[in-house]
Design brief:
Blueprint lengths: L5 H22 L18 H20 L22 H23 L8 E2 L2 E5 H26 L8
Antiparallel strand pairs: 1-2
């Protein structure tokens, strides 16, 4: 019988609740004909925001899992090129890649051999817990933004709560 690990369970719950479920809720039933729309006073489209979430999460997951990972240049490497548009296939690819990386990260965290508090050998001073915190904060911020912008342009499905 496995020994309970309350910190690990709490971190996994935080990832699943904040990252996975909230992401799915914010992106649900998005009208494909509006993914390239720029909300008022915003320099990027809804698709660009979803792609930014994907790239940001991918970078953090790779930073933790791959000692040879090189992050993209900040900030330009974390957003699609200015003026780049997505289509339904690009939207779905961003969504699926976000979900896949989220599951990969959760699987790593669920491993009892993953020490959440120890400095990672390839990044002295940074821990897995620090990276989870960074990921959750970044994702929560932009999911709130996505939800508010959907409200501003009124593209939530009818009956959305």
């Amino acid at each position: 019988m496995a020994t309970p690990d309350p910190l690990r369970e709490h971190v996994l719950d935080l990832l699943r609740r904040t990252v996975e479920r909230r992401f799915d809720q914010a992106a649900a039933d998005f009208p494909m004909d509006r993914i390239n729309e720029h909300p008022p006073h915003v320099d990027y489209s809804f698709w660009a925001l979803v792609e930014h979430l994907r790239i940001g999460q991918w970078d953090i997951v790779e930073y933790v899992l791959n000692p040879n990972h090189v992050s993209p240049p900040h900030p330009v490497g974390y957003w699609p090129q200015p003026g780049q548009e997505g289509d339904a296939a690009a939207w779905n690819k961003s969504i699926e890649a976000f979900r896949a990386d989220s599951k990969r990260f959760a699987a790593h965290i669920a491993e009892p051999t993953t020490d959440l508090l120890a400095p990672m050998p390839h990044t002295p001073g940074h821990t897995v817990l620090r990276e989870v915190s960074l990921l959750v904060g970044h994702t929560a911020y932009h999911l709130g933004e996505l939800g508010i912008l959907r409200q501003v342009v009124q593209n939530w499905p009818p009956g959305h709560q």
